[in-house]
Write a structure and sequence with these properties.
- GO terms for molecular function: RNA binding; tRNA (uracil(54)-C5)-methyltransferase activity, S-adenosyl methionine-dependent.
- This protein has 648 residues and is an alpha/beta fold.
- Helix content is 35%, strand content 20%.
- α8 crosses α18.
């Protein structure tokens, strides 16, 4: 992992040029659904041809191998050679990573048992970090509110201090039990070792490049070979299951007789569902937008399976599945062609640089990730080159930045027409460090322009923006229609990001009041409002559960017609924010947008539980729901649920 001073980075040779190669899966304009389906069928045929070609090559080489073996059949195998041949069939040590010099939280870990019956992780962290001042780097919880958890430290001394302090410590009338914890095995090595369990004498058949690519395609776009009509049917069925699960779980909690009666009436009216389910919204009438639609992708830089050559693409599987190899994205349906061309161009740079790619197993190497943001409307392009800089010499780091800059401003990379070029370091985080490292702008402007609903919006490297620009317009229209927004409506835009949803409906309502936890996103929202001449939108930075206590939310000018539009991250909205929304007596309508409906279930239930000491305010119940297909070729689907107060 360490870069020696004399092991300097060489600039890419000027002879390297991007060859215009014919893409075997060029996405062509299509006019109807049949043509969209034909793309998937054509891809399947090409995969089979590719696999057959490789199998043919293997058979030919196999014949030569058989001949060689027959010539050597009578030769006695040298004991040393025999040992080398069987060496690869020996199980690896899944705990070898503990002996490496690099830090892992598994080295200094303790287990805390006999925790109180009722406690919160935030409470526990406050106890150990603020009151007891223990230098804990991480708290791991196997399950929510479980009877035990793990604490990790950065040194043996810190670990021992925590052990002596916490063992027998009385917290909430309970004596804690602290002891040393065993490290977990490396999941990658553990998975590789599993091949020996059933048949230890047989060596596992290696995956080839064609097989790796097929696995990756099936993982990234599982619906690539299913007609779009069938995709929509499957997604509608999935949403029905979510709504039925909501009904089942609502019955099991203390929801009150009024909600039980309401639910029974709704199920009788809506074929067993708790609310009316509208037809799934999609771009089925514009099939060419159902492929190549992603405006952002994070590509892994790794090695291919067969040749161990650097490749920029998607991981074949997860680390804990025993897979670290990467496969090309040439045949991925939802990645636009221009993005594929940019990836190929960047891959040429990686290979020519002679700088090793990052190895997630040993934490060596440097090239790690390429993030691409592309506006399919304006054509503007942003690249973020992520490099693992652990133990990297300053001179080598400077040379690598210059190499990237020169390549895209003077070399073959100029064909990519990059508008915004960033560099980002990546390394193991120390205690107290955030989830991301600072971005360094190497070239161009610090943002790209995206167009949606007639607005021109600035998109920064860390801005949240719907992954499918064309479908996002369908999404926003559906949310606006469900909320019955008019010129007298005040819209509370909760988790507003860079203001996209609120700004897109600002012209149709009285006022938009937004809240977002990321300050940078809020600054971008304010700038987007100014640049689009929108004067009836204001935005605040901070946690929703705190900011919504402000007067602007609690007592808006148009308090007679207020609707909240909630678009939280995949994990959902913090429960404190849900409780605060319930306490807003002037709030009668709420639109909840979720890209992970199953993950939002707890929020749905918290909105609908009967009023109590902790859940003040009349409950919200679902009235209408509409799925929106934001992710063609995959099983994922956005769900919008319209809630209204259930007044007694």
């Amino acid at each position: 992992m360490e870069v020696n001073a004399d092991n300097h980075l060489e600039p890419a040779p000027k002879e390297i040029q991007i060859k215009s190669e014919e893409n075997v899966n060029e996405i062509v304009p299509v006019k109807n659904e049949d043509e969209t389906e034909s793309i998937a069928k054509e891809m399947q045929i090409k995969y089979e041809e590719k696999v057959n070609e490789l199998e043919s090559d293997k058979k030919e080489s196999g014949a030569e191998e058989i001949q060689l073996k027959s010539e050597e059949g009578n030769r006695e195998i040298d004991p040393e050679e025999k040992e080398n041949q069987s060496e690869s069939a020996v199980k690896e040590d899944p705990f070898a990573y503990l002996d490496r010099d690099d830090f892992t939280s598994e080295k200094y870990k303790i287990e805390i048992r006999n925790l109180p019956k009722h406690y919160g992780i935030a409470e526990f962290k406050k106890l150990i970090n603020t009151k007891l001042e223990l230098n804990c780097s991480k708290v791991k919880t196997p399950n929510r509110n479980g009877k035990w958890l793990y604490m990790c430290f950065r040194s043996e001394e810190d670990k021992n201090t925590a052990l002596s302090t916490l063992n027998g410590y009385n917290w909430k009338n309970t004596k804690l039990d602290a002891s040393n914890a065993k490290a977990v095995p490396d999941p990658l090595v553990k998975k590789r070792n599993e091949q020996f369990d059933d048949c230890p004498e047989v060596k596992k058949i290696k995956l080839d490049n064609a097989g790796a690519e097929q696995q990756m395609i099936s993982s990234v776009t599982p619906f690539f070979n299913i007609s779009y009509k069938e995709q929509l049917t499957k997604k509608t069925s999935s949403i029905k299951n979510v709504l039925m699960d909501y009904s089942r779980r609502l019955k099991r909690i203390k929801c009150g007789q009024a909600i039980v009666d309401w639910l029974k009436k709704q199920q009788n009216t809506n074929n067993g569902l708790p609310c009316e389910l509208l037809e799934i919204q999609s771009l089925k009438n514009d099939p060419e937008k159902c492929v190549g639609y992603r405006n952002k992708c994070e590509f892994t830089i790794g090695m291919d399976v067969e040749n161990k050559e650097p490749i920029v693409g998607f991981r074949v599987g997860a680390y804990n599945q025993g897979k670290t190899c990467v496969a090309p994205i040439d045949n991925i349906l939802n990645v636009p062609q221009r993005m594929k061309d940019v990836v190929k161009c960047f891959q040429d740079l990686v290979r020519a640089s002679k700088v090793p790619v990052f190895d997630p197993e040993n934490y060596t190497g440097h090239w790690r990730q390429l993030t691409v943001r592309l506006s399919l409307k304006t054509g503007q392009l942003m690249l973020i080159c992520v490099v693992h800089t652990e133990n990297m010499e300053d001179s080598a780091l400077t040379s690598l930045k210059q190499l990237i800059l020169s390549y895209f401003t003077e070399g073959a990379g100029t064909d990519c027409k990059v508008d915004s070029l960033y560099f980002q370091k990546a390394k193991k985080r120390a205690a107290g460090e955030g989830n991301s490292f600072p971005l360094e702008l190497l070239h161009g402007q610090g943002y790209i322009i995206e167009e949606v609903k007639g607005l021109k919006l600035r998109i920064s490297p860390e801005s949240f923006f719907q992954i499918n620009t064309a479908a996002s317009e369908v999404l926003f229209d559906a949310a606006k229609d469900l909320a019955s927004i008019n010129s007298q409506t005040t819209v509370l835009d909760v988790c507003c990001g860079s203001g996209t949803i609120g700004l897109s409906i600002a012209k149709d309502c009285a006022q938009v009041i937004g809240v977002e936890i990321q300050e940078e996103a809020v600054n971008m929202a304010k700038l987007n409002a100014t640049e689009n001449g929108i004067t009836n939108a204001i935005f605040f930075a901070g946690k929703a559960e705190e900011i919504m206590n402000r007067r602007e939310f609690q007592n808006p000018e148009n308090a007679n017609d207020v609707v909240a539009i909630v678009d939280p991250p995949r994990a959902g909205l913090h429960n404190k924010a849900i409780l605060l929304l319930r306490r807003m007596t002037h709030l009668k309508r709420l639109v909840y947008m979720s890209c992970n409906p199953k993950g939002a279930m707890q929020n749905f239930l918290s909105l609908s539980m009967a009023e109590s000491k902790t859940k003040q305010g009349a409950p919200f119940v679902p009235v209408k729901a509409v799925p929106v297909d934001m992710f063609p070729q995959t099983p994922h689907c956005e769900l919008i649920v319209y809630f209204e107060r259930l007044e007694s």
